[in-house]
Amino acid sequence: MCGVVGLYAPGHDVARMAYFGLYALQHRGQESAGIAVSDGASIVCHRQMGLLSSIFDEDILSKLQGYIAVGHTRYSTTGSSAVVNAQPLLEHAPFGDVALAHNGNLTNTDEMRAGLSPITVLQATSDSEVLERLIVEAPGDDMAARIRHVMTRAEGAYSIVMSTENALYAFRDPWGVRPLCYGRNPGGGYMFASESCALATVGAQFIRELDPGEIMWVDGEGLHYEKIAQPKPQALCMFEYIYFARPDSLLDNRSIYMARLEMGRQLAREHPVEADVVMAVPDSAIPGGIGFAQQIGLPYVEGLIKNRYIGRTFISPDQAMRNRGVQLKFNPIVENLRDQRVVVVDDSIVRGTTTPRIIKLLRDAGAREVHVRITSPPIIHPCYLGVDMATHEELIAANLTIPEICEKIGADSLGYLSKEGLLNATGRKRGEMCLGCLTGEYPETYNGPPVQAVAVRH
Ligand code: SF4
């Protein structure tokens, strides 16, 4: 998971717009970030480890002058967490500068790397650099032809924005695993972003999502688009709906907030329980918690307040603080929990390390019963398409039955949303989304290690 933005807007402060667009996408990656700007003659890039607020200031932004920008905020899956892998990746190609920002994971990186010229020396360790180098080395009279050449060979997930000195390109893999949309800047020009919330933040008007396998570019002649890869079975990551995307974003013209609200309602239909109050683990589970409460007819309360500014700090907690566990992140509202039978709605249980701490926090605050409801089905397989999920051994639902998980996390009861319930809530059909980590059936683009058979006892 990463966030990307691209802007082509002559006469506008594109670096500042990219900065605020990335700010709206900070939830997609907090490891490193960067912005590259072209003034038509060359590209200047600034990238660093850390959060956007710690990387950019007025002085740095004022040095990024031009009319085309690409920006990236990173969450690493392939390639180490080091500044060399921070993006955008700037390449001084024989035909001019190129800056690329990538969200996703290639599944045939080794094969792609083997297609590079023998004299190519890679600086970074990520699949994104391999992609960029291949585009630079690809045959073709123009950049669209080079991209077309690489898109017919690359497998896996890639939603990319890329700048040359005088044009902006955006393209999405033929499976559509990661989102990418575009809109019009009211003052002139266009903007591309991982999520529509980034467009709304800078006042750009959402037009539509890029189709899977589509390339778009903007240059002095305007906007161009072309479907350059054969359509493949659609495989948008269902975790975009459950957890990644911001609730104020649109996917497939469906509000993420409304999809999550419906997941909560459906969860209440599937797993009703006698209780006094419903709460959610902030932030991504809140719409699901509200939906659950609406459907079951119980009050929705705030049971935990999240310390929103802790993010991923580079200061490690000392042992005493570590022992306080999730309290660094959440504080309970005792008045809403004391002597109550509480339903706590969360979006997923992956390894099962955080949930027991949350339940303990609620019990310590006086909750009489804690009933856990999860707005995703059990996660029983790893992800090979860009999400740092866990290995089979670490995935709690791959190794324990639901009653065993319930006991291990210390809940009074536990219920997961069904796969059908999830699909209905998103409005998408089976076969139109990747459900690999729920089913072990990955999109055809997957060609990683053999899928390990898991005996799931529910
Ligand atoms: S395997 Fe799971 S997390 Fe990975 S892309 Fe598919 S649905 Fe998303």
Describe this structure in words.
The chain is an alpha+beta fold and 458 residues long. It has two domains: 3-232, Aminohydrolase, N-terminal nucleophile (Ntn) domain (Glutamine Phosphoribosylpyrophosphate, subunit 1, domain 1, 4-Layer Sandwich); 255-439, 3-Layer(aba) Sandwich (Rossmann fold). It is 28% helix and 24% strand. It contains 17 helices and 23 strands. The protein has helices at residues 14-24, 52-55, 58-63, 109-114, 127-137, 143-151, 196-201, 239-244, 256-270, 286-296, 319-323, 334-337, 354-364, 396-399, 402-409, 419-426, 436-439; strands at residues 3-8, 32-38, 43-49, 68-74, 89-93, 96-103, 159-163, 168-172, 181-184, 190-193, 205-209, 214-219, 222-227, 236-237, 250-251, 254-255, 277-280, 304-306, 330-332, 341-346, 369-374, 413-416, 433-434. The protein has a seven-stranded antiparallel β-sheet with strand order 3-2-4-1-10-9-11. The chain has a six-stranded antiparallel β-sheet with strand order 5-6-7-8-12-13, with helices on one face. It is globular and about 70 Å long. The two termini are 30 Å apart. Mean pLDDT is 90; it is low at 448-458. Residues 177, 237-239, 383, 385, 387, 389, 434-437 line the site of iron/sulfur cluster. The site of iron/sulfur cluster (SF4) has 12 residues, from helix 17.
